[in-house]
Write a structure and sequence with these properties.
This protein is of the alpha+beta class. 38% of the residues lie in helices and 27% in strands. The chain folds into two domains: 2-163 and 333-340, Aminopeptidase (3-Layer(aba) Sandwich), CATH 3.40.630; 165-315, Aminopeptidase (3-Layer(aba) Sandwich), CATH 3.40.630.
């Protein structure tokens, strides 16, 4: 393999087509490794998580016989103590799964060669490497650990947040039958109460490109009704989300839905429909409609819709919120891999 360091956005953009062809066969086929997602993330550095003046592209590619076989989507920044650190583009808060972009059969050679390449390049030598949100199902963490220890490099591994995930059966009743009896009854009761209400309870998905930004703005404003999420929604974060929605829509990945009560928005989910899974990215609801349990009802409708579409799974992604388990989530894990290039 021949390794090359990419440090300019122009050279990064030139990889778009090859990147998109490689990802479906990679270790982790996830939306957060798509070229268009990461390019959007970079424009605001994850909604302001990093300062542009401290953030520099250090993307590494490997080729064999002029074919792209591996991508390490990295950038350099500074820790709170001023140490230079290499991280995945997309780290940390808004990209639930990150990894190297390489086929399983090339992964060991690419991963080992990557560490050697980064350790020898003066632009990355001596950096701390902190790779967050690697799926536990990926061999990346173990490969890095084994190689680092063989080279006498101190390696730190840590399990981060759980990521509840539920496989979907072919029908709604089959899905409900897999839930705890009490939870099955609760979902049915809340949906029935909403549908039997004298108020008009309805829901819809956003389909028209011309409506995406307006509806996404409404979603953000509903998120902001939650004090914690309001703090999260800095101006840069709002810009990131507003810019991301059209990108998701353009690629056919956007699943933005709203539950309405008498025509007023009561709850919403921003999901990503990707690789025949529904990835639950964020949610919002209006406390004024609490009596209708709008978040639960809308999620029930979304799961029913996903089953009808033949979608294989719902990924609730990072976090151990109770509702994820009540809707059948089973934990999967993500890892942090950390070492110093020397």
């Amino acid at each position: 393999m021949l390794f090359k360091l990419i440090t300019t956005e122009t050279d990064w953009d030139n990889l778009a087509d090859k990147w998109s062809r490689l990802l479906p066969a990679a270790l982790s086929h996830v939306p957060f490794l798509e070229f268009d997602y990461l390019r959007t993330w970079w424009q605001t550095r994850g909604g302001g998580e990093y300062r542009p003046e401290d953030s520099h592209l250090r993307l590494v590619i490997a080729t064999r016989d002029d074919l792209l076989v591996g991508i390490a989507p990295l950038f350099s920044t500074k820790t709170a103590l001023g140490q230079s650190v290499l991280m995945f583009i997309g780290s940390i808060e808004v990209s639930d799964y990150l990894d190297l972009v390489v086929r399983p059969e090339d992964a060991a050679e690419f991963t080992q060669g990557l560490v050697q390449f980064l350790a020898s390049d003066p632009r990355t030598k001596g950096h701390l490497v902190s790779l967050y949100n690697i799926p536990a199902s990926s061999p990346t963490t173990d490969t890095l650990k084994t190689f680092s220890e063989n080279q006498g490099i101190s390696f730190h591994q840590e399990t981060l947040q759980p990521c509840p995930h539920v496989s979907l059966p072919p029908d709604w009743e089959g899905y409900l039958s897999n839930l705890d009896k009490k939870q099955r009854h609760e979902i049915r009761r809340k949906i029935r109460r909403a549908e039997e209400s004298p108020n008009i309870v309805d829901w819809y998905m956003v389909h028209e490109a011309s409506n995406v930004r307006t509806e996404m703005q409404a979603f953000i404003e509903m998120m902001a009704k939650d004090p914690q999420k309001d703090q999260f929604l800095t101006p840069n974060m709002r810009k990131f989300l507003l810019d991301l929605a059209p990108v998701l829509h353009q690629n056919g990945w956007l699943n933005l839905s709203f539950l309405t009560v008498d025509g007023q928005k009561a709850a919403a989910y921003l999901c990503i429909h990707y690789d025949n899974q529904l990835w639950v990215y964020n949610s919002a609801w209006d406390q004024a409609f609490a009596e209708f349990s709008p978040g639960w009802v809308l999620l029930g409708y979304l799961v029913q819709w996903a089953i009808e579409q033949g979608i294989q799974a719902v990924d609730f992604m990072r976090g151990d919120e109770v509702y994820k388990y009540r809707f059948g989530g089973r934990d999967r894990q993500i890892n942090l891999a950390q070492f110093v290039l020397s």
